[in-house]
Amino acid sequence: MFFLLEARRFPPLKRKPCYGIKERVIQEPNVHFWNNISKPIIALSPMDGVTDPCFRRIVATHGKPDLIVTEFTSVEGILHGAESELGGLVFDEIERPIVAQIYGSNPESFFLIAQLVCELGFDGLDINMGCPAKAVSSKGCGAGLIADPPRAKAILQAARQGIDAWVAGGALPMVDLHPKIGEWLTRRKEVGQLPPSERRPLPVSVKTRIGVNRVVIQEWVSHLLEEKPAAISIHGRTLHQGYRGAADWKAIAEAASIARGSGTLILGNGDIRSLNEAAQRIRESGVDGVLIGRAALGNPWIFRKKSLLREALSHHEPELIPDEPASPLERLEAALEHARLFQESRPLSRFAEMRKHLGWYCKGFPGASQLREKLVRVRNVDEVEALLAPFLSEVSYR
């Protein structure tokens, strides 16, 4: 296998497309949101188990990043009608531009799901080639694809062919999709969530890492550029590092240099804790933007000064961006808003998933640690309101 990954048996690749349409000839990128979005791009990074529809809506409301990417969803899970996967493909108009991120190892599945992503009205399709979780990478998905460039390229080609089939006016291949998907689409139409009125091709992008067990950014990015993705987002760690150690921004800078002039944007990701750090990384690496992940947990406001970041970068000498953290009142009100939204849109049996978010909001004011200890046991929004009420009353008068 490529790049020193342990050899495993994956489904054989088909030598030629078998999707009922001609093999796609890669052309210059079409006009799409990646071309028109302000640069440098300050985007919300997809995070498994975090960037669900409720979290994304809160971030869009309070921070409005330039771009939002969903948490990754399994193409096989979607094909089998898994409600957890379909639920991740729900979005609100306020989130635009919104990109659906999917993962898997079977190109034929990407051909099918790319059509569904188009039908749902997303602005773009992102393919995860960077998840380091063993349950994902050991199956040749996520960062496991770094070790298998032919499969990675076949997946990109299949996704594009699926998009082309949809743009050409083809109906969704319902015979190949689980009946639950048809039922889900019907319910969406009943509440006014209709397919796009105009069939435009969606840009395809990739999120990946710098290698498997060593840095191979030059070889890997060169392989990806052969497929002309609209953008490549690069996390500055290898698969084997996971989230340990420091992100390697020199490798990300090398990727930006390799891609310069290709028409593919390069975004960096890893260890960005503030807009000042984002500005520094952009200036030093030459990337077209950054993805901010963990720094946005309980802090959707991190994006609201992005215009000042662009202004600071327009000057020859580095300038500090004023750091104005959210007030305790803003934090508590957002926590309550998030909890209410979660309970309105998700089964009550899953409310425990909201607890981590509540803990992230509650910091930076007296009694925050004691409040967090209680919030990890809440079962519904009524209990959240009861716990937050005295704190909201107190901070409102400060």
UniProtKB/TrEMBL annotation:
This is tRNA-dihydrouridine synthase. Keywords: Flavoprotein, FMN, NADP, Oxidoreductase, tRNA processing. Gene3D superfamilies: Aldolase class I, Putative flavin oxidoreducatase, domain 2. Residues 44-164, 201-392 form the DUS-like FMN-binding domain. It comes from Candidatus Manganitrophus noduliformans. Its cofactor is FMN. InterPro entries: Aldolase_TIM, DUS-like_FMN-bd, tRNA-dHydroUridine_Synthase_C, tRNA_hU_synthase_CS. GO terms for molecular function: flavin adenine dinucleotide binding; RNA binding; tRNA dihydrouridine synthase activity.
